[in-house]
Amino acid sequence: MENKWKENLIKIKPYVAGEQSDDKDIIKLNANENPYPPSPMVQKIISEFDYRNLNKYPNSDSTILKNAIANRFKVNKNNVFVGNGSDDVIALSFMAFFNSDKPILYPDITYSFYPVWCSLINIPYKKIPVDENFEIVPQDYYIENGGIIIPNPNAPTSIGKGLDFVIDIVEHNQNSIVIIDEAYVDFGGQSAVELTKKYENLLITQTFSKSRSLAGIRIGYAIGSETLIQTLETVKNSYNSYVVDSLALEIGTASMNDEEYFINTINKVISTRDRVKSELRKIGFNVLDSQTNFLFAAHKDYRAKEIFEYLKTKKIFVRYFNIPKIDNYLRITIGTDEDMDKMISAIKEFLNK
User: Which of 12, 186, 219, 323 is deepest in the core (most CB within 10 A)?
Assistant: First the structure.
């Protein structure tokens, strides 16, 4: 009978993020963070923020940030939901929308948080295999289901699909809620936000963490029909009414309004990505065409784990997934040109040793 209470503890396999380090000399290319700082308007907000107002709760409706997002995407404020990072938005969406006894569907090679949420909330699920080229096949989603979530572009493969792909999925699943996770869409993908005006069962999620360089402030959002957004608000208010803090609301608004800086930063990442992709191919890597801020690459002669371990000795962190289908691939976040040159140099050392 001793320690009987331990039987009531949840038993779940958690999501594992990229390796962290306190070493300031580490070149960190394993978490898909943006190598550039956020908009200068963010710095202005921080420097002028009156800390004395932190004794009050933030606006629970996140009005200023919702308005900024709505204005940029030309939707109504009632079509916008905001949360504490897109992980929070998606987790709340799982609670709000996936409540049938049928399994939800998502790719077998994708964001590894999805099965964690399913286990946490007791949602049945079915993984749909990607094909031999890591492509998501829409026809495989024509089966009965309790909902669908697909990242577009997908992670960790970096592959993005056009609007015809999304339309195909939604048209064949009009009795299910379809979530398109667009965490990386700004780096060359095609957003399906406009389609939410036609399809009431379509929800698009995005984040400030990647293209807006705000991973440290935790802001995410969803755009969809008023029915979906109102349901999300109900779940949020049944869980935590004050999801986004006062400073984050102002920072997110400033970032969303600085379109020029946003575009310039994206273009720098894309330029570096395309250069590094070409250089890696020259030294024997198969590198998938990326629409994200990372590359998915496998060398023709050397195992990914060997390269991964060698780069660690050089204080360069990339991401290695020891799971079937992709255990010979590395996911390499795009850093500054200087960081990427150091990585390429280290890989060449490994290949020539």
Answer: 219
